[in-house]
Every structure is written in structure tokens, then in C-alpha cells.
Amino acid sequence: MRGLASSSSSKKVVHVKVPDALANIGSQVFDFNTLEPATLKAYKRAITEGTPLDEKYKTKLAQAIQNWALEKGAVNCSHWFSALRGTNAEKVGLES
To answer: Among 45, 64, 83, 92, which is least packed, fewest CB within 10 Å?
Structure first.
């Protein structure tokens, strides 16, 4: 286990033991800044302005994420969607 230093308001250093399994959390995250500049610009515009992402950029984005995952040793994948806008996810192609 590794020790992490944390300071309180009295400037006393407190050592916290972190299990080794948690030491690298966040180190295996796709870096969107590795995208081609045009793809990154379109992706950021889609996120900030809500504009639809053109099919060619969707494909480039998906390929970049897939290649990154394969380089990390992925053999399976899953799509996980969590709505962040405070509304329900749109259901496409489902009969009510």
C-alpha cells in the first residue's frame, strides 16, 4: 500500500494508506487531445453547443477510441450511456 500525504487546516500531515489496486485509478483514460484537430474541434463543438456530430467525425472518434482500447489489451467492449442533462435518454426505434 502507498501512503498519500494530506494536509488539514492546522497544516499537520496525515498519511493515508491507499491499496495498490487503487493507486493507478484514472491512468487508463482516453485522451481526447490525441484526436486529429478537425475531429477534436467537431467533438468539442458537439459537447458545448449540442450540434450533431457529422458521420465522418463519429467514425474517426470511434476508431480512435477502439484503437486506444486495443493497444491497452481490450478484447471486449460495452457501450454505457448515462444521461447527464437531467432528462431521460431518448429511446430510438422502440414502440411504446
So the answer is: 92
